[in-house]
Amino acid sequence: MGTIYYGGAGTPIHIEDRALAHLKVVIATKLRRNESFTVSWRHPEGEPRGRSTIWLHPSIPLRFVFDDPEPAQLSREWIEELANSANSSGGIMLVAEHFDAPGAPAVDEPGADGDSGSSPAPAVTAEQSRSLA
């Protein structure tokens, strides 16, 4: 389980490592462009029932912490889906990954943080991920 530390909030945000690795790519792209937006998610099991939304702004400190020291294999489709939602008026809604391309090749993404579990979804390289969103 990964963690986002945002601003001075005393409560860390826990998100599964693989999801956090994908979210990090989209968030970094938006903030690098000096764009503000929201991120929403449903609370994971073990936390009070409900959902949360945060407003992300380039001037507010942000840190991603991953439990797994190995980088994730990133899915181009999942990143594109998150990026499309980031550009909507509702902001990013963290959704589960879709595996629409079973058996598609996956490529390790050496610059990403997250888990190293294999994924049947196509992966993207660091260079490709920068061109998304």
Number of domains: 1
What proportion of the residues form beta strands (DSSP E)? Answer: 15-25%
> Helix count?
3
Average pLDDT works out at 76
Distance between the termini: 25 Å
Q: Label the overall shape.
A: globular
Helix % is 10-25%
Spatial strand arrangement across the major sheet: 2-1-5
Descriptive labels:
133 residues; three-stranded mixed β-sheet; disordered C terminus; alpha+beta; three-stranded antiparallel β-sheet
Q: How would you characterize the overall build of this protein?
A:
The protein has helices spanning 17-32, 76-86, 126-131; strands at 2-6, 13-15, 37-42, 51-56, 62-65, 74-75, 92-93, 123-124. The two termini are 25 Å apart. It is 25% helix and 23% strand. The longest helix is centred in the N-terminal third of the chain and has 16 residues, at 17-32. Helix 1 (17-32) packs across helix 2 (76-86). By secondary structure, the protein is an alpha+beta fold. The protein has one domain. The chain contains three helices and eight strands. Mean pLDDT is 76; it is low at 100-133. The strands form three sheets. The chain has a three-stranded antiparallel β-sheet. A three-stranded mixed β-sheet has the order 4-3-7. A two-stranded antiparallel ribbon has the order 6-8.
